[in-house]
Amino acid sequence: MKTLPRPVPSAEERFAAVHSVCHDSVYRYLPRRMIPAHLAEDLTGEVFMIVWEKVLGGMEPEIPYVVAIARNLLRNAYRTSAKAAKLRSSLALAQQRPTVQDPRMDHALGMLKEAGRELLLLTSWDSFTSEEIAVILVAGAGAIRVRLHRARKPFARTLEAQYTRLGSPGEAVQP
C-alpha cells in the first residue's frame, strides 16, 4: 500500500508554530529589561517580523535564537534612540534588577556586575539552560557555565554575609 506524502506546512503554519512556542519567552524577556511596557510590545512585534522573514527563508528558529533577536533589537533600540542617554540612566540598578522581597537578596544582586546579574536572571527568572543562554549571548556553552559559576560565587558570598550579619528573616539580630 502506498502512502500519500504529507503536505508541506505553509510559511504561515510554520510561523504560527514558532510564534506559539516563542512568544511568551520573548514577551517575558523584554519587559524585564525596559521600563515602558508599550516599548516592549513594539519590540516583540519587531522580533516576530524578523522571525517571519526567517521562516520565509526556510528557517524554523527556536526559543534561544528568537530571544537573541530580541536582545539584539533591544541593544539597537538603546543605541539609536534619541533618548538613549535618558533611558539608560532611568534603567539604574534598582529598576533594572527585579524587585525582591528580601532586601538582602536585592543587595546581593546589586553587588554583581551587570553581566553576572544578567546570567543569574536568565537562569533563575527566565529558566534558560547554559546552552540556550550561549545562543542568546552568542558564546560557547562552556564559557557560559564558567561565567555563571563565577557570578554565583560573589552572589553567594554577599548573601551569606548579609544573612550572617543580619540573621535569617524573622530571627532576632545577633550582636
UniProtKB/TrEMBL annotation:
The keyword Transmembrane does not apply. It comes from the Bacteria. It holds the Pfam family Sigma70_r4_2. Residues 105-153 form the RNA polymerase sigma factor 70 region 4 type domain. Gene3D superfamilies: 1.10.1740.10, Winged helix-like DNA-binding domain superfamily/Winged helix DNA-binding domain. Keywords: DNA-binding, Sigma factor, Transcription, Transcription regulation. Belongs to the sigma-70 factor family. ECF subfamily. This is RNA polymerase sigma factor 70 region 4 type 2 domain-containing protein.
